[in-house]
DNA sequence: TCAAAAGTGTTATCCTTACACCCATGC
DNA sequence: GCATGGGTGTAAGGATAACACTTTTGA
């Protein structure tokens, strides 16, 4: 890191150097890459649940050594944010088809104990059947964790001029080997027209930096998006049964749905195929595909 | 700017200086501050329209000298993004009660012709009765412009694997002295699971940088937000008539609403007062206030 | 008197919700 | 046979959209 010699370009740089201008934050891109995969099958009849998976990398150095973090890296001067995001994706996986959306930009001063870092977070959704995670070539080990977000407590008090709300979430990221957890408390306050949201991590086991916050934010965004867009299909394989689709909705929304109503609601977004599942221990079910042009019917 | 002397802290800095690490983007915060104000009254009976106003500052230096830009500035190392946003607001106005929300982070490489800049944009909404814009003390002149966004053309073609969509917007920012316009074209493409949005400014008269894009983005976000939240009330004075409220909805949504239906829909979000308007050239109308606790009924 | 807006009522239609029922499979 | 899921029907309640009508004011 230290450098005693002075190169020509460095000389050039020093000529126009103004110390004040470098007292500025650096920018990283952090990636929230989600997929869906079947959980374990309890018996020959019962269908497996669909689990939501998030990719994390193990940190090799301090701070937060041996804890798990979101994949990410610095944005270079010659690449746009989207390019940096795609670069991150390519570094970790072989993704070709991916849904990518900018989530939020995190800018608290003490986010990173070393220096001032501003992180632009991106949500990426992929179909697990089209995906393999690269391994080995990067020093960091990357692994999938099953993500669950449960609301523990919710409290809302109305005040003279607004309200004070507190939601307590339990975030769990589980693996064959590892279980990471975090208690995340979201404080929402409204005084007149001023609305403030403050998110605290009251306890984080094994999740580096403020990444538990970011993951909770992403999961909440995903919950919202799923109910008013068709993003869910970016998580599905080319063909799927309606119950599989329903189960993905259910894990993301963390809520049971009524079959008949669910099917009516999504019927205009899917297309029948002539294929059926077999040997499932129960009546075969028809396979469907996403109907690209559902929005104009 | 140039500096020939070398201070102690600078010496210290140079010891650990690594030129590569400074090839990094700088971060600014850009502010989209909106209010609502009554337009001109056509005759003694007719109610004035409600106009959506945006605050812009005139650029004093190159690039884009004499063009109008969003108020904004660099994020310092010792302040969070929100702090930087509030600082910007305070620099331009006397706002106390303001709704503030992070919009989007803009990161194209050539956004600023001078250096690489990443801008985090914030949406701010204020009630104009509580607001005055500071003037004089800053070199830049700040002024309010009436913002209108009209869809000129819309085209959507379905393809094998997705669609190609093109929307053409005409953005107009009007003042007593100045009229700024921009043609903004939003290309939305979907190929399989990859959805891309590319926004181009085909013609920008008097609006600096890529700020026309950002303003269009903000107006679209405002349109969405208004239809599923209660943000609209952050733009309203303490008391208002239902027709005033309806007119604000109509200018933001750029769409006429049916009175009876509108009133039913928002009835649970407002509270009657005992006051009425007078001397309006027609039947007096009751004044209402925002009902803070509408969400739990 | 009358233009302009304030304010309310009616109806058809659609969407949501909850629940009930029958069907098909493979061990 | 039966557990498990596949698949459909019905009815109540609520929200939405379009339209029509009455009331009140001030120049």
UniProtKB/TrEMBL annotation, chains A, B:
**Cell membrane among the record's keywords?**
no
Provide an example Pfam family for this protein.
WHD_NrtR
Recorded hits in SUPFAM superfamilies, A to Z, give:
Nudix (SSF55811), Winged helix' DNA-binding domain (SSF46785)
Q: Which residues form the Nudix hydrolase domain?
A: 22-169
Has keyword Oxidoreductase?
Answer: no
One GO molecular-function annotation for this sequence? ADP-ribose diphosphatase activity
Q: What is its EC number?
A: 3.6.1.13
Keywords in alphabetical order, please.
Answer: Hydrolase
Gene3D superfamilies from the UniProt entry: Nucleoside Triphosphate Pyrophosphohydrolase, Winged helix-like DNA-binding domain superfamily/Winged helix DNA-binding domain
* Family label: Belongs to the Nudix hydrolase family.
Name of the featured protein: ADP-ribose pyrophosphatase
Which source organism does the UniProt entry give?
A: Lederbergia lenta (Bacillus lentus)
Lineage, opening ranks = Bacteria, Bacillati, Bacillota, Bacilli, Bacillales
